[in-house]
């Protein structure tokens, strides 16, 4: 029997060749979904939606780059099968359903293809201890944060505003009415508030859709960085939702309170209050996601 001996210099080359089929598959799969990428670019370019999804794609690209040397040479067959079925289904739906539905299935299929080749864990950063360079502990790669970022990559802010914006505005207005009632006579009229006879409209930007996108993006990104398992990630999602809803209610209450007090906030104050609350919400979500993982959660 002939044994193939690899020199230390040839070993990295052999490892790169071993990972080539994974990169080739991911490249071909990405090319096969070209109609979806083209629709996403067109939807953002014509002003129909906002380019926030580029941040989610950037995080996924950074994840793929960080594990490029650890990609599986033998893919996980269940994820690969889902990727194939999803791609075929998205192609069939392209002419039979709305573009967003077809794109949702396509991006989910692309994420499944990525998960088929991702390793179980990624290497941590290198650290120096006693003058010697040691690899940091490996961090797991949860499937739920990857799928979540894939969905967030879609241009869906406008659609969320259309379908979920009004109910969220009603909830926000009612919560603000309750918080303002000790200082003002407040009545809710639909998604508007009557504050001491002054009608204040809780408009689309106050629905919290953008804050929700940013909050769940922060949750998925920090979960990948922290190496949270699916169970640990899922158990933290209710806290993420509470922070997003609470932050939006506080922002709306502050702005409506200023208007009710006769201190009409200008555009700069609106922006400053919104940015401060957004930073606070995302910071709180990052803290929740970065908390130490308990034994029962780590799965």
TrEMBL record:
GO annotation, cellular component aspect: plasma membrane
Membrane-topology annotation of the record: Multi-pass membrane protein
Alphabetical GO biological process terms: proteolysis
Keyword entries, A-Z: Cell membrane, Hydrolase, Membrane, Protease, Transmembrane, Transmembrane helix
InterPro entries: Exo/Archaeosortase_dom (IPR026392), Exosortase (IPR019127)
Keyword Repressor: no
Source superkingdom: Bacteria
Pfam families, A to Z: Exosortase_EpsH
Subcellular location: Cell membrane
Any GO molecular function: peptidase activity
Membrane-spanning ranges: 20-39, 51-67, 79-97, 103-121, 142-164, 198-225, 237-256, 268-290
Protein name, per record: Exosortase Q
Species assigned in the record: Ottowia testudinis
Gene: xrtQ
């Amino acid at each position: 029997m002939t044994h193939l001996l690899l020199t230390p210099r040839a070993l990295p080359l052999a490892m790169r060749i071993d990972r080539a089929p994974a990169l080739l598959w991911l490249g071909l799969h990405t090319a096969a979904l070209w109609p979806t990428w083209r629709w996403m670019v067109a939807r953002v370019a014509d002003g129909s939606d906002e380019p926030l999804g580029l941040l989610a794609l950037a995080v996924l690209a950074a994840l793929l780059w960080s594990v490029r040397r650890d990609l599986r040479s033998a893919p996980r067959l269940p994820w690969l099968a889902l990727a194939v079925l999803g791609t075929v289904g998205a192609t069939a739906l392209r002419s039979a359903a709305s573009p967003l539905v077809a794109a949702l299935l396509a991006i989910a299929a692309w994420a499944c293809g990525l998960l088929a080749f991702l390793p179980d864990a990624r290497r941590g950063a290198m650290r120096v201890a006693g003058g010697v360079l040691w690899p940091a502990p490996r961090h797991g790669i949860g499937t739920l944060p990857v799928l979540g970022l894939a969905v967030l990559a879609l241009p869906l802010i406008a659609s969320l505003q259309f379908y979920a914006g009004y109910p969220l505005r009603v909830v926000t207005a009612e919560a603000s009415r309750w918080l303002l009632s000790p200082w003002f006579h407040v009545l809710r009229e639909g998604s508007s508030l009557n504050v001491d006879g002054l009608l204040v409209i809780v408009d689309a930007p106050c629905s919290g859709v953008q804050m929700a996108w940013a909050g769940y993006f922060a949750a998925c990104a920090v979960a990948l960085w922290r190496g949270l398992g699916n169970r640990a990630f899922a158990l933290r999602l209710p806290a993420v939702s509470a922070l997003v809803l609470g932050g939006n209610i506080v922002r709306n209450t502050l702005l409506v309170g200023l208007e009710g007090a006769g201190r009409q906030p200008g555009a700069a104050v609106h922006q400053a209050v919104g940015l401060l609350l957004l930073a606070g919400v995302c910071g709180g979500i990052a803290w929740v996601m970065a908390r130490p993982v308990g034994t029962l959660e780590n799965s």
